[in-house]
Amino acid sequence: MNDVLLWLIPLAVLVAGGGTAALLVPRSRRQRDLPSGTVLERPTTATGDAAAPAPAEAPPAAEVPATAADVEAVPVEQPAPAQGRLVRLRDRLARSGSPLGARLLAVLSRDQLTEDDWDEIEETLLLADVGAGPAGELVEALRTRVRVLGVTDTQAVRALLREELVRLVDPGMDRALRTAGDEPGQPGVVMVVGVNGTGKTTTVGKLARVLVAEDKKVVLGAADTFRAAAADQLQTWGSRVGVTTVRADRDGADPAAVAFDAVRQGKADGADVVLVDTAGRLQNKAGLMDELGKITRVVTREAPLTEVLLVLDATTGQNGLTQARVFGEVAGVTGIVLTKLDGTAKGGIVVAVQRELGVPVKLVGLGEGPDDLAPFDAEQFVDGILGD
Ligand SMILES: Nc1nc2c(ncn2[C@@H]2O[C@H](COP(=O)(O)OP(=O)(O)OP(=O)(O)O)[C@@H](O)[C@H]2O)c(=O)[nH]1
User: Which residue stretches belong to region Disordered (predicted)?
Assistant: First the structure.
Protein backbone atom coordinates (compact mmCIF):
# COMPACT_ATOMS: atom_id res chain seq x y z
CA MET A 1 0.00 0.00 0.00
CA ASN A 2 2.80 2.37 0.94
CA ASP A 3 4.54 1.66 -2.39
CA VAL A 4 1.39 2.50 -4.30
CA LEU A 5 1.07 5.78 -2.43
CA LEU A 6 4.67 6.66 -3.19
CA TRP A 7 3.90 6.37 -6.90
CA LEU A 8 0.49 8.01 -6.76
CA ILE A 9 1.48 11.23 -5.02
CA PRO A 10 4.01 12.52 -7.60
CA LEU A 11 1.70 11.36 -10.38
CA ALA A 12 -1.18 13.38 -8.94
CA VAL A 13 1.06 16.43 -8.65
CA LEU A 14 2.08 16.15 -12.28
CA VAL A 15 -1.49 15.75 -13.48
CA ALA A 16 -2.69 18.71 -11.39
CA GLY A 17 0.04 20.85 -12.89
CA GLY A 18 -0.88 19.97 -16.42
CA GLY A 19 1.64 17.18 -16.55
CA THR A 20 4.40 19.45 -17.69
CA ALA A 21 7.98 18.52 -17.04
CA ALA A 22 8.75 22.22 -16.65
CA LEU A 23 7.39 21.96 -13.13
CA LEU A 24 10.47 20.11 -12.07
CA VAL A 25 13.02 22.10 -14.00
CA PRO A 26 15.05 24.63 -12.04
CA ARG A 27 14.31 28.19 -13.03
CA SER A 28 17.75 28.87 -14.48
CA ARG A 29 17.32 26.14 -17.08
CA ARG A 30 13.69 26.79 -17.80
CA GLN A 31 14.19 30.49 -18.28
CA ARG A 32 16.36 30.12 -21.38
CA ASP A 33 13.35 28.78 -23.27
CA LEU A 34 10.80 31.13 -21.81
CA PRO A 35 8.62 33.13 -24.13
CA SER A 36 8.43 36.84 -23.45
CA GLY A 37 5.66 37.91 -21.11
CA THR A 38 6.36 34.93 -18.92
CA VAL A 39 5.31 34.57 -15.32
CA LEU A 40 7.77 33.10 -12.89
CA GLU A 41 6.49 31.97 -9.55
CA ARG A 42 8.74 31.33 -6.64
CA PRO A 43 7.76 29.47 -3.49
CA THR A 44 8.70 31.87 -0.75
CA THR A 45 9.55 30.75 2.71
CA ALA A 46 9.64 33.85 4.83
CA THR A 47 6.66 35.99 5.72
CA GLY A 48 6.56 39.75 5.43
CA ASP A 49 7.43 40.26 9.04
CA ALA A 50 10.67 41.96 9.81
CA ALA A 51 11.90 39.23 12.08
CA ALA A 52 11.89 36.65 9.29
CA PRO A 53 15.28 35.63 7.88
CA ALA A 54 16.49 37.58 4.87
CA PRO A 55 15.54 35.80 1.66
CA ALA A 56 19.10 36.05 0.37
CA GLU A 57 19.87 33.43 2.98
CA ALA A 58 17.20 31.17 1.52
CA PRO A 59 18.11 28.97 -1.48
CA PRO A 60 19.01 31.16 -4.45
CA ALA A 61 16.30 31.43 -7.06
CA ALA A 62 18.17 29.37 -9.62
CA GLU A 63 18.05 26.32 -7.36
CA VAL A 64 14.43 26.65 -6.41
CA PRO A 65 12.12 24.34 -8.30
CA ALA A 66 9.65 26.43 -10.22
CA THR A 67 5.95 25.85 -9.92
CA ALA A 68 3.23 26.70 -12.43
CA ALA A 69 4.06 29.09 -15.23
CA ASP A 70 0.74 30.24 -16.63
CA VAL A 71 1.72 32.18 -19.67
CA GLU A 72 -1.21 34.11 -20.99
CA ALA A 73 -1.40 34.05 -24.74
CA VAL A 74 -1.98 37.76 -25.27
CA PRO A 75 -0.82 39.60 -28.36
CA VAL A 76 2.26 41.70 -27.63
CA GLU A 77 1.65 45.41 -28.13
CA GLN A 78 4.04 48.09 -29.27
CA PRO A 79 3.67 50.92 -26.72
CA ALA A 80 3.76 54.54 -27.80
CA PRO A 81 6.88 56.64 -27.14
CA ALA A 82 6.64 58.77 -23.99
CA GLN A 83 7.80 62.06 -25.45
CA GLY A 84 5.17 64.71 -25.95
CA ARG A 85 2.59 63.05 -23.74
CA LEU A 86 2.41 65.89 -21.25
CA VAL A 87 0.61 68.08 -23.77
CA ARG A 88 -2.45 65.90 -23.12
CA LEU A 89 -2.55 67.41 -19.65
CA ARG A 90 -4.19 70.55 -20.95
CA ASP A 91 -7.19 68.65 -22.29
CA ARG A 92 -7.45 66.48 -19.23
CA LEU A 93 -7.32 69.46 -16.86
CA ALA A 94 -9.87 71.35 -18.91
CA ARG A 95 -12.28 68.48 -18.21
CA SER A 96 -11.51 68.32 -14.49
CA GLY A 97 -13.36 71.44 -13.39
CA SER A 98 -11.97 74.92 -13.03
CA PRO A 99 -8.21 74.62 -13.52
CA LEU A 100 -5.79 76.60 -11.40
CA GLY A 101 -4.47 78.65 -14.32
CA ALA A 102 -7.94 79.76 -15.44
CA ARG A 103 -8.86 80.90 -11.94
CA LEU A 104 -5.63 82.86 -11.50
CA LEU A 105 -5.96 84.51 -14.89
CA ALA A 106 -9.56 85.48 -14.18
CA VAL A 107 -8.39 87.56 -11.21
CA LEU A 108 -5.24 88.88 -12.88
CA SER A 109 -7.19 90.20 -15.86
CA ARG A 110 -9.13 92.64 -13.66
CA ASP A 111 -8.42 96.31 -14.38
CA GLN A 112 -6.88 97.53 -11.17
CA LEU A 113 -5.52 94.84 -8.90
CA THR A 114 -6.49 95.60 -5.32
CA GLU A 115 -5.31 94.11 -2.03
CA ASP A 116 -8.36 91.85 -2.12
CA ASP A 117 -7.44 90.62 -5.59
CA TRP A 118 -3.95 89.62 -4.41
CA ASP A 119 -5.49 87.88 -1.41
CA GLU A 120 -7.77 86.02 -3.79
CA ILE A 121 -4.79 84.91 -5.87
CA GLU A 122 -3.04 83.63 -2.77
CA GLU A 123 -6.20 81.83 -1.67
CA THR A 124 -6.57 80.26 -5.12
CA LEU A 125 -3.00 78.98 -4.91
CA LEU A 126 -3.65 77.58 -1.44
CA LEU A 127 -6.83 75.85 -2.60
CA ALA A 128 -4.80 74.27 -5.40
CA ASP A 129 -2.48 72.73 -2.78
CA VAL A 130 0.55 74.84 -3.70
CA GLY A 131 1.33 75.27 0.00
CA ALA A 132 1.54 78.42 2.11
CA GLY A 133 5.24 79.17 1.61
CA PRO A 134 5.33 78.87 -2.19
CA ALA A 135 1.95 80.65 -2.54
CA GLY A 136 3.23 83.63 -0.55
CA GLU A 137 6.44 83.70 -2.58
CA LEU A 138 4.59 83.69 -5.87
CA VAL A 139 2.21 86.49 -4.85
CA GLU A 140 5.08 88.65 -3.59
CA ALA A 141 7.19 88.14 -6.71
CA LEU A 142 4.31 88.67 -9.11
CA ARG A 143 3.01 91.69 -7.27
CA THR A 144 6.42 93.35 -7.24
CA ARG A 145 7.00 92.71 -10.93
CA VAL A 146 3.53 93.91 -11.94
CA ARG A 147 4.08 97.11 -9.95
CA VAL A 148 7.69 97.76 -10.97
CA LEU A 149 7.10 97.03 -14.63
CA GLY A 150 3.73 98.82 -14.58
CA VAL A 151 2.17 95.91 -16.43
CA THR A 152 -1.57 96.12 -17.05
CA ASP A 153 -2.00 94.28 -20.30
CA THR A 154 -3.55 90.82 -19.69
CA GLN A 155 -1.16 88.99 -21.98
CA ALA A 156 1.86 90.57 -20.26
CA VAL A 157 0.49 89.67 -16.80
CA ARG A 158 -0.11 86.15 -18.04
CA ALA A 159 3.50 85.93 -19.23
CA LEU A 160 4.73 87.07 -15.81
CA LEU A 161 2.49 84.55 -14.06
CA ARG A 162 3.85 81.83 -16.31
CA GLU A 163 7.44 82.77 -15.46
CA GLU A 164 6.74 82.78 -11.74
CA LEU A 165 4.88 79.45 -11.85
CA VAL A 166 7.75 77.84 -13.81
CA ARG A 167 10.20 79.19 -11.25
CA LEU A 168 8.11 77.65 -8.47
CA VAL A 169 7.95 74.26 -10.19
CA ASP A 170 11.73 74.51 -10.60
CA PRO A 171 12.94 73.62 -14.08
CA GLY A 172 16.48 73.17 -12.71
CA MET A 173 15.70 69.88 -10.93
CA ASP A 174 17.18 66.73 -12.44
CA ARG A 175 14.17 64.70 -13.53
CA ALA A 176 15.98 62.00 -15.47
CA LEU A 177 14.92 58.49 -14.44
CA ARG A 178 17.90 56.44 -13.34
CA THR A 179 17.14 53.17 -15.04
CA ALA A 180 20.69 52.13 -15.98
CA GLY A 181 22.68 49.77 -13.78
CA ASP A 182 25.80 51.02 -12.03
CA GLU A 183 28.02 48.40 -13.64
CA PRO A 184 28.01 46.58 -16.98
CA GLY A 185 25.82 43.50 -16.80
CA GLN A 186 23.89 44.89 -13.86
CA PRO A 187 20.31 46.04 -14.38
CA GLY A 188 18.99 49.31 -13.06
CA VAL A 189 16.59 48.59 -10.21
CA VAL A 190 13.58 50.83 -9.71
CA MET A 191 11.50 50.28 -6.58
CA VAL A 192 8.03 51.79 -6.55
CA VAL A 193 6.54 52.67 -3.16
CA GLY A 194 3.41 54.39 -1.88
CA VAL A 195 0.17 53.69 -0.02
CA ASN A 196 -2.63 51.47 -1.31
CA GLY A 197 -4.62 52.73 -4.21
CA THR A 198 -2.33 55.56 -5.23
CA GLY A 199 -1.59 53.78 -8.51
CA LYS A 200 1.68 51.94 -7.89
CA THR A 201 0.91 48.79 -9.84
CA THR A 202 -0.59 50.78 -12.69
CA THR A 203 2.47 53.03 -12.71
CA VAL A 204 4.87 50.06 -12.83
CA GLY A 205 2.87 48.68 -15.76
CA LYS A 206 2.85 51.99 -17.60
CA LEU A 207 6.54 52.55 -16.89
CA ALA A 208 7.36 49.12 -18.28
CA ARG A 209 5.66 50.21 -21.48
CA VAL A 210 7.67 53.43 -21.60
CA LEU A 211 10.90 51.46 -21.20
CA VAL A 212 9.90 48.83 -23.74
CA ALA A 213 9.14 51.64 -26.18
CA GLU A 214 12.76 52.73 -25.62
CA ASP A 215 13.90 49.19 -26.56
CA LYS A 216 14.89 48.33 -23.00
CA LYS A 217 14.60 44.81 -21.67
CA VAL A 218 12.49 44.87 -18.53
CA VAL A 219 11.68 42.40 -15.74
CA LEU A 220 8.86 43.05 -13.29
CA GLY A 221 8.89 42.01 -9.64
CA ALA A 222 5.47 41.65 -8.01
CA ALA A 223 6.58 42.36 -4.44
CA ASP A 224 3.10 43.62 -3.51
CA THR A 225 2.22 40.28 -1.99
CA PHE A 226 -0.35 41.87 0.33
CA ARG A 227 -3.14 42.47 -2.16
CA ALA A 228 -4.17 39.25 -3.83
CA ALA A 229 -4.89 40.74 -7.24
CA ALA A 230 -1.82 42.97 -7.47
CA ALA A 231 0.48 40.31 -8.95
CA ASP A 232 -2.17 39.29 -11.50
CA GLN A 233 -2.65 42.94 -12.41
CA LEU A 234 1.10 43.42 -12.86
CA GLN A 235 1.44 40.21 -14.82
CA THR A 236 -1.27 41.39 -17.22
CA TRP A 237 0.59 44.66 -17.78
CA GLY A 238 3.82 42.72 -18.39
CA SER A 239 2.27 40.18 -20.75
CA ARG A 240 0.88 42.92 -22.95
CA VAL A 241 4.38 44.13 -23.77
CA GLY A 242 6.20 40.81 -23.60
CA VAL A 243 7.82 41.41 -20.23
CA THR A 244 8.56 38.70 -17.63
CA THR A 245 6.90 39.01 -14.24
CA VAL A 246 8.45 37.36 -11.19
CA ARG A 247 5.89 36.69 -8.49
CA ALA A 248 5.34 34.62 -5.38
CA ASP A 249 3.28 31.47 -5.47
CA ARG A 250 1.04 32.60 -2.64
CA ASP A 251 -0.41 35.75 -1.12
CA GLY A 252 1.33 37.19 1.89
CA ALA A 253 4.73 35.80 0.86
CA ASP A 254 7.86 37.73 1.77
CA PRO A 255 8.05 40.77 -0.54
CA ALA A 256 11.83 40.97 -0.10
CA ALA A 257 12.17 37.41 -1.43
CA VAL A 258 10.19 38.29 -4.54
CA ALA A 259 12.14 41.51 -5.11
CA PHE A 260 15.40 39.61 -4.69
CA ASP A 261 14.30 36.96 -7.18
CA ALA A 262 13.19 39.57 -9.68
CA VAL A 263 16.58 41.27 -9.61
CA ARG A 264 18.38 37.96 -9.86
CA GLN A 265 16.12 37.06 -12.78
CA GLY A 266 16.86 40.42 -14.38
CA LYS A 267 20.58 39.75 -14.14
CA ALA A 268 20.23 36.26 -15.55
CA ASP A 269 18.10 37.56 -18.43
CA GLY A 270 20.50 40.41 -19.19
CA ALA A 271 17.68 42.88 -18.49
CA ASP A 272 18.33 46.61 -18.58
CA VAL A 273 15.84 47.42 -15.83
CA VAL A 274 14.00 45.60 -13.05
CA LEU A 275 10.85 47.33 -11.79
CA VAL A 276 9.75 46.28 -8.31
CA ASP A 277 6.16 46.91 -7.22
CA THR A 278 5.66 46.98 -3.42
CA ALA A 279 2.68 46.97 -1.09
CA GLY A 280 3.98 49.66 1.25
CA ARG A 281 0.97 49.60 3.52
CA LEU A 282 1.04 52.58 5.79
CA GLN A 283 0.09 50.51 8.82
CA ASN A 284 2.68 52.25 10.90
CA LYS A 285 6.02 53.88 10.28
CA ALA A 286 8.07 51.18 11.97
CA GLY A 287 6.38 48.40 9.98
CA LEU A 288 6.84 50.27 6.74
CA MET A 289 10.45 50.98 7.54
CA ASP A 290 11.04 47.29 8.29
CA GLU A 291 9.38 46.13 5.09
CA LEU A 292 10.97 48.62 2.69
CA GLY A 293 14.29 48.50 4.53
CA LYS A 294 14.40 44.74 4.19
CA ILE A 295 13.54 44.83 0.48
CA THR A 296 16.28 47.41 -0.07
CA ARG A 297 18.91 45.48 1.89
CA VAL A 298 18.12 42.20 0.21
CA VAL A 299 17.88 43.59 -3.32
CA THR A 300 21.13 45.49 -2.90
CA ARG A 301 22.97 42.20 -2.48
CA GLU A 302 22.23 41.55 -6.15
CA ALA A 303 22.28 45.11 -7.52
CA PRO A 304 21.87 48.56 -5.98
CA LEU A 305 18.58 50.40 -6.24
CA THR A 306 19.02 53.08 -8.86
CA GLU A 307 15.70 54.79 -8.23
CA VAL A 308 13.02 54.78 -5.52
CA LEU A 309 9.84 56.26 -6.89
CA LEU A 310 7.13 57.42 -4.50
CA VAL A 311 3.68 57.25 -6.06
CA LEU A 312 1.26 59.87 -4.77
CA ASP A 313 -2.35 60.42 -5.74
CA ALA A 314 -2.64 64.07 -6.77
CA THR A 315 -6.26 64.19 -5.65
CA THR A 316 -5.45 63.51 -1.98
CA GLY A 317 -3.98 66.94 -1.20
CA GLN A 318 -2.68 67.35 2.33
CA ASN A 319 -3.05 63.63 2.94
CA GLY A 320 -0.64 62.96 0.11
CA LEU A 321 1.87 65.29 1.72
CA THR A 322 1.67 63.44 5.00
CA GLN A 323 2.33 60.18 3.14
CA ALA A 324 5.21 61.80 1.28
CA ARG A 325 6.77 62.84 4.56
CA VAL A 326 6.64 59.31 6.01
CA PHE A 327 7.91 57.58 2.87
CA GLY A 328 10.57 60.26 2.44
CA GLU A 329 11.87 59.39 5.89
CA VAL A 330 11.82 55.61 5.51
CA ALA A 331 12.40 54.84 1.85
CA GLY A 332 15.13 57.14 0.53
CA VAL A 333 12.84 58.46 -2.20
CA THR A 334 14.66 59.73 -5.30
CA GLY A 335 11.68 60.73 -7.45
CA ILE A 336 7.94 61.30 -7.26
CA VAL A 337 5.21 60.02 -9.53
CA LEU A 338 2.03 62.06 -9.23
CA THR A 339 -0.91 60.02 -10.45
CA LYS A 340 -4.48 61.05 -11.27
CA LEU A 341 -3.45 64.56 -12.24
CA ASP A 342 -6.20 64.23 -14.82
CA GLY A 343 -8.77 64.06 -12.03
CA THR A 344 -7.88 67.20 -10.15
CA ALA A 345 -7.80 70.93 -10.69
CA LYS A 346 -5.20 71.12 -7.92
CA GLY A 347 -1.93 70.90 -9.81
CA GLY A 348 -0.24 72.86 -7.03
CA ILE A 349 0.58 69.62 -5.23
CA VAL A 350 3.57 69.34 -7.60
CA VAL A 351 5.15 72.36 -5.95
CA ALA A 352 4.22 71.39 -2.41
CA VAL A 353 5.51 67.84 -2.60
CA GLN A 354 8.81 68.81 -4.21
CA ARG A 355 9.33 71.36 -1.43
CA GLU A 356 8.38 68.82 1.20
CA LEU A 357 10.77 66.11 0.05
CA GLY A 358 13.35 68.10 -1.88
CA VAL A 359 13.11 65.54 -4.69
CA PRO A 360 11.64 66.13 -8.13
CA VAL A 361 8.38 64.97 -9.66
CA LYS A 362 9.68 62.76 -12.46
CA LEU A 363 6.51 61.28 -13.90
CA VAL A 364 2.83 62.14 -13.91
CA GLY A 365 -0.22 59.93 -14.43
CA LEU A 366 -2.76 61.47 -16.75
CA GLY A 367 -5.41 58.79 -16.92
CA GLU A 368 -6.19 55.10 -16.76
CA GLY A 369 -5.05 54.35 -20.30
CA PRO A 370 -1.92 52.21 -20.75
CA ASP A 371 0.12 55.09 -22.13
CA ASP A 372 -1.19 57.75 -19.76
CA LEU A 373 2.12 58.23 -17.97
CA ALA A 374 4.26 61.19 -18.98
CA PRO A 375 7.76 62.38 -18.11
CA PHE A 376 7.36 65.58 -16.12
CA ASP A 377 8.57 68.89 -17.48
CA ALA A 378 8.16 72.16 -15.57
CA GLU A 379 7.39 74.41 -18.55
CA GLN A 380 4.99 72.02 -20.26
CA PHE A 381 3.24 71.45 -16.95
CA VAL A 382 2.73 75.18 -16.37
CA ASP A 383 1.50 75.58 -19.93
CA GLY A 384 -0.88 72.73 -19.24
CA ILE A 385 -2.37 74.37 -16.15
CA LEU A 386 -2.52 77.83 -17.75
CA GLY A 387 -4.39 76.49 -20.77
CA ASP A 388 -4.85 78.57 -23.93
N1 LIG B 1 -7.58 58.72 -13.55
C2 LIG B 1 -6.45 58.06 -13.24
N3 LIG B 1 -6.52 56.87 -12.60
C4 LIG B 1 -5.36 56.26 -12.29
C5 LIG B 1 -4.09 56.81 -12.61
N6 LIG B 1 -3.14 55.96 -12.13
C7 LIG B 1 -3.79 54.92 -11.56
N8 LIG B 1 -5.12 55.09 -11.64
C9 LIG B 1 -6.18 54.20 -11.14
O10 LIG B 1 -6.06 54.09 -9.73
C11 LIG B 1 -6.55 52.83 -9.29
C12 LIG B 1 -5.57 52.19 -8.32
O13 LIG B 1 -4.41 51.84 -9.02
P14 LIG B 1 -3.43 50.66 -8.57
O15 LIG B 1 -2.30 50.69 -9.54
O16 LIG B 1 -4.16 49.40 -8.39
O17 LIG B 1 -2.97 51.19 -7.15
P18 LIG B 1 -1.92 50.55 -6.13
O19 LIG B 1 -1.23 51.68 -5.49
O20 LIG B 1 -1.07 49.55 -6.81
O21 LIG B 1 -2.86 49.85 -5.10
P22 LIG B 1 -2.50 48.65 -4.08
O23 LIG B 1 -2.03 47.50 -4.90
O24 LIG B 1 -3.81 48.39 -3.39
O25 LIG B 1 -1.44 49.16 -3.17
C26 LIG B 1 -6.79 52.02 -10.56
O27 LIG B 1 -8.18 52.04 -10.84
C28 LIG B 1 -6.04 52.78 -11.63
O29 LIG B 1 -6.58 52.63 -12.92
C30 LIG B 1 -4.06 58.09 -13.28
O31 LIG B 1 -3.02 58.68 -13.56
N32 LIG B 1 -5.29 58.66 -13.56
Answer: 34-58
